[in-house]
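Methods — Computational structure assignment.
A single polypeptide chain was analysed. Its primary sequence is given first, followed by the predicted tertiary structure written as structure tokens.
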Amino acid sequence: MGKDLYESNDEAKQLFEKANEILGFRITDIMFNGTEEELKQTKVTQPAIFLHSVVNDLVNAKDEKPDAVAGHSLGEFSALVANKTLSFEDALKLVVARANAMQEACEANPSTMAAILGLDDAKVEEICSGIEGVVVCANYNCPGQLVISGSNEAIDAACAKLTEAGAKRALKLPVGGAFHSPLMEPARQKLAAAIEATQFNNPICPVYQNVNALPCSDPAQIKKNLVDQLTGAVRWTQTVENMVAAGINEFTEIGPGKVLQGLVKKIHRDATTQSL
């Protein structure tokens, strides 16, 4: 993961080594040679994905000026480096603070998430609102693909009801926490303190943020939206729809994989997508 970049580009190598220094351990050793289990450690997963995305962008797209940026959940931090709101170093420190805060919240309150396929968003929202306990819509990925988040019991009850209502699948995910739900409130408070202490600059272009799917260029508002993201939904479907409505139809995915390209195409079939 990122090894080719490290070995072929001096600037990339310097950024990866700077990350090792900031993190206090050699994350590159795990990214390049580690096992899948090692990569799945909370302290590794989020910084590793962030690094792969941001180093790629800083090295290969540094002369590009996007019309707008957006990121899915953790990807919002990468987007804020791409539009110069955050420095590489500050964003990495926030990603680490976020990962640690989320891990602590998971350990304090075991919970989970589930992918719901083949139902309208409104139907999923309606059923979740009638379930006892905490269960909310967390990721609006594309039409017919939504992730719910909440306590273990409430997720089980919601999955049963959603299957009865005609969902093609209601599949519990192998995660240890209810991300983007009210159960992340302890993590939100910790991240808020870290974000408040960090310098946010005027961006070179708007960022469409997860919590409201709207473009923002005001550093103070970007901070607030980034904090609220931990307990709020990732409105990716609405984000892409709003970007397309604003005249954006070329999307470049930067980072590991091509998942977002697939989602963009399902939201707007005429969009042009590529990866970097």
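Note: Strands lie at 69-70, 111-117, 135-142, 145-151, 169-172, 207-208, 215-216, 250-253, 272-275.
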